[in-house]
Specification:
By secondary structure, the chain is an alpha/beta fold. The protein contains 18 helices and 10 strands. The structure holds 5-phosphoarabinonic acid.
């Protein structure tokens, strides 16, 4: 099977790339030898191999849920749902009603209307729940799980609900672990040494992906091969080192924003997963490339003007898919009233590819350096490779930047304020302080 390819040459020359050889190799050693900050969160490096012993249990659980449910709700936020949604959206039909069972998501926001609409939809469904939270205490998924668990128990009875709920959480700690033990739910463990945004190849991602009917072994095969390639101390043939070198080079030249670009709407959530991976890993100590994303050609009609002519602080990383899964050919039309006969007989993908090439050239002419990732196809194996490539490059890139890529201290700030405002027990002092601050602002 063909591997994904990374090309830097539209953004920097060979000499510039090679000037980062020692720096990237040193960052890679820090990662693989576990000598850097956050070295207690490196379990993801060996996940594609380590998780194999659990694959058959994950598959059996998924097969059971697939038999029992016409809809499965994945409850989780951040790293606890983005990886699964990225892979499922990329590989399933874009039209929900074509997918059986349908995978839907909750607990990734606090939108009341969303929850109301979801609960209404689930009213006449045989649904199941996969509740994922490493800490087991995150408010958004806990709130959604409370509502959906009660609904399932009311609709199907406590015994059936017990069979249709699976929890993925810490082995011992957290409210979700306590609840799952008391209720007797099936559980999978998120190991201590795997952070949320690096957990897609653990049960966190694999169970929902298997529930969607996708091949988790192929995903792991692709990831295992790319993980080996990206952790090898071979600068010439290591795409993760090239990517880490290229983006840090561009950042140091003042390109502070990286746009991940795709030309297939199915890849939208790959970008969302990537944004969390890089944003939470690198955005620290007032440093870090801002990870943003666009779906082309859609966003060429909204963001294209800015990318072409706005402030020159951008670079693009384009994900290009060589072969789409399906073939659609533009028909001939005798009247040719739309003037499109020049496209007749061509595949839609050929039009898309010319839009892609034309856009890359235009953006480069406009001063936006382009990095390129070529995927041979959209399948499990290639997505496994992409995940491993981005994860290793993220660790290396974070160490090059001088931050701990594996913590996320900044995420706590909003939680503290929210709990204080909601008068959560234990937050009395913070409540008093925030209320004083608000009254002074009035
Ligand atoms: O990457 C991370 O660690 C975070 O984004 C978490 O995944 C997210 O905050 C959800 O946390 P938890 O799984 O503990 O509910």
């Amino acid at each position: 099977m063909k591997d994904i390819q990374f090309t830097y040459s539209y953004a920097l020359d060979n000499n510039a790339l090679h000037s980062y050889k020692e720096e990237t190799l040193s960052a890679l050693r820090t990662l693989t030898e576990g000598t850097g900050a956050g070295n207690d969160f490196l379990g993801w490096l060996s996940l594609p191999k380590d998780i194999r012993s659990q694959v058959s249990t994950i598959q059996q659980t998924a097969d059971r849920l697939r038999r029992q449910c016409d809809m499965i709700v994945c409850v989780g936020i951040g790293g606890s749902y983005l990886g699964a949604k990225a892979v499922i959206d990329a590989l399933q039909s874009s039209f929900a009603y074509c997918n059986k069972p349908q995978i839907v998501y909750a607990g990734n926001s606090i939108g009341e209307d969303y929850l109301y609409e979801l609960q209404t939809l689930l009213r006449d469904r045989n649904f199941g729940i996969i509740c994922i939270s490493k800490s087991g205490t995150t408010t958004e998924p806990a709130l959604a799980f409370r509502l959906l668990k009660q609904q399932l128990e009311e609709q199907a009875g406590k015994e059936v609900a017990r069979e249709r709920i699976v929890c993925i959480t810490d082995a011992k700690k957290g409210a979700l672990r306590t609840l799952a033990t008391q209720e007797g739910y099936d559980t999978f463990v998120i190991e201590d040494n795997i952070g949320g945004r690096f957990s897609v190849l653990s049960p966190v991602g694999l169970l929902p992906i298997a529930c969607a009917g996708l091949d988790i072994n192929a995903l792991l095969d692709g990831a295992e091969k790319m993980m080996a390639c990206c952790t090898a101390a071979d600068f010439e043939h290591n795409p993760a080192l090239h990517y880490a070198a290229s983006r840090n080079h561009l950042y140091r030249q003042g390109k502070k924003i990286e746009l991940l670009v795709n030309y297939h709407p199915k890849l939208h959530y790959v970008s969302e997963w990537w944004k969390q991976l890089y944003g939470e890993s690198e955005g620290k100590q007032n440093k870090g490339i801002f990870p943003a994303s666009v779906d082309f050609t859609t966003d060429l009609h909204s963001m294209g003007q800015y990318v072409q002519e706005g402030e020159r602080h951008l670079f693009e990383t384009v994900i290009s898919v060589e072969q789409p899964e399906h073939k659609v050919v533009v028909p001939t039309d005798d009247a040719n009233l739309d003037g499109l006969n020049f496209l007749a007989g061509k595949r839609v993908d050929e039009v898309n590819k010319m839009a892609e090439l034309g856009t890359r050239l235009a953006h480069m002419d406009g001063g936006v350096p382009n990095l390129l990732i070529q995927m041979p196809a959209l399948n499990e194996y290639a997505l496994g490779q992409l995940i491993a490539f981005f994860e290793v490059a993220c660790g290396v890139s974070g160490y090059m930047l001088g931050v701990n890529p594996f913590n996320q201290p900044g995420v706590e700030a909003y939680k503290k304020n929210m709990f204080a405002l909601l008068r959560k027990p234990g937050y009395e002092e913070a409540t008093a302080a925030i209320e004083k601050r608000i009254s002074q602002q009035r």
